Amino acid sequence: MESETIVEALFLGLLEGMTEFLPVSSTGHLLLAGHFLGFESNGKTFEVLIQLGAILAILTVYFSRLLKIARALPSDPTARRFVTGILVAFLPAAVIGAIAHDFIKEVLFESPRLICVMLIIGGLILLWVDRLDLKARYTSVMDYPLGLCLKIGLIQCFAMIPGTSRSGATIVGALLLGTDKRSAAEFSFFLAMPTMAGAFAYDLFKNRNILTFNDGSLIFVGFIAAFISGVFVVRYLLDYVSRHGFALFAWWRLVVGTLGLIALIVMG
After folding, report:
1. Can you tell me whether residue 60 is helix, strand or coil?
2. Which residues, if any, are the signal sequence (predicted)?
């Protein structure tokens, strides 16, 4: 295994963990970075499987809260509604993702230009939404009604287009549907767990016959890096968006998308 490839896997893992929970599209960043670095993984599995590190980052930070919710399930209807709401929000992505898996991986993942365009469009939408004077009706994820959860889950499906951002889609959808910024970001965290775990398991199953030992080593390096950077982001993101909103991430998307398009034109 070449040391340059290990360094690339380490860099991409750190990038995954840093961007997975931000509304900037981690997959879009990974695919663009991989394109310009010349990093190739069998069946584009690396980009999906290292998400396990980000999943474990959420579990680590929210372990005590998740344990409290699990213990309350038999007796607390609020806890049961919350868990049911997460599962309801997850279902649309599970169904559509399974049906469109091959098209997403073989067509959409192979279009850097599309990724850049979606980064720019998503940045403009995020900037617009962040400046709206929205009135929040829901300020706690534990109080989200099931209908709201389903709507957020349907909106999450737009994130199957790389460059859109899973967290960006869910946060924007939640805000437009009447939530506040902090709970919208937190719901995106919780929804990420079944969504990313499902994508991980399904992609691993689909590509189990083409993965090699070298792939596994690179994925492990990326997984560790994604976990470390993911823990940092999960710990500090909620406080940041509560105070400052999402404008910084909107501008970041616009800059990355624009520079990406310029680089594609100049370099190919």
Report:
1. helix
2. none
